[in-house]
Write a structure and sequence with these properties.
69% helix, single chain, 208 residues, mainly alpha, 6 helices
């Protein structure tokens, strides 16, 4: 959720900055490169985390217990993804399958590495858990390295199945959405009169 917020704030800043400048052909700014990396991490992983959370929750709890969940659970694992998806649909930021897949797998491996450091360093959690001493409580119950079989299976499924499937979905969605925008831009470039209003055309015709 933190990365998603940073990505959206940075995207807004770059869009506002670009609107205030005359378009020129220069090398991509550092902030734009950073945003592109975050974009390829945040977008697919927000969907993967949402799917993992709700699949795990529904397997362990009856649907009636949804009433007991707080707002932050719904926002972090549902509404947050909706906002990111809306941003993806209305923006013109490109999405590459190869870049997305590489970023997705890298982020997943980094997170797995952090969970291992958290386990071996016995960092624990702010709240005690029922099974272990507080300094041995895992970040998530599904990433419990006291029983490594399940974390290994989850990490493998995320890297080998979820990342390529979700990134293919986003790359296809981006190609379809951007295609219409590119066609509109091409039409305006080839036929500038078609993009003008009737008043603007009349003014052009009346001009000497």
């Amino acid at each position: 959720m933190i990365l998603g917020t940073i990505s959206e704030v940075l995207l807004f800043h770059l869009a506002r900055k670009a609107m205030a400048q005359v378009p020129t052909r220069h090398e991509m700014p550092t902030l734009a490169r950073l945003e592109l990396i975050l974009w390829h991490v945040v977008q697919p992983f927000s969907l993967i985390v949402m799917i993992l959370f709700w699949t795990s929750w529904l397997l362990e709890n009856p649907v009636e217990d949804l009433q007991q969940m707080n707002y932050m659970d719904f926002y972090a694992h549902g509404l947050g993804h909706v906002w990111l998806l809306l941003s993806f649909l209305i923006s013109n930021v490109p999405f590459s399958f190869c870049t997305g897949f590489g970023s997705c797998v890298t982020y997943a491996l980094v997170y797995v590495a952090w969970s291992l450091i958290h386990f071996f360093a016995k960092i624990g959690t702010a709240q005690p858990c029922d099974v272990y001493p507080q300094n041995e409580c895992p970040i998530y119950s599904k990433l419990d390295w006291h029983k490594p079989q399940l974390p290994i299976v989850i990490a493998s499924l995320v890297c080998l199945v979820a990342c390529p499937v979700v990134c293919a979905f986003y790359a296809t969605l981006a190609a379809r959405c951007r295609r219409g925008q590119d066609e509109d831009n091409e039409t305006k470039t080839k036929h500038p009169r078609a993009s003008k209003s009737k008043v603007e055309i009349a003014v052009d015709m009346a001009a000497p």
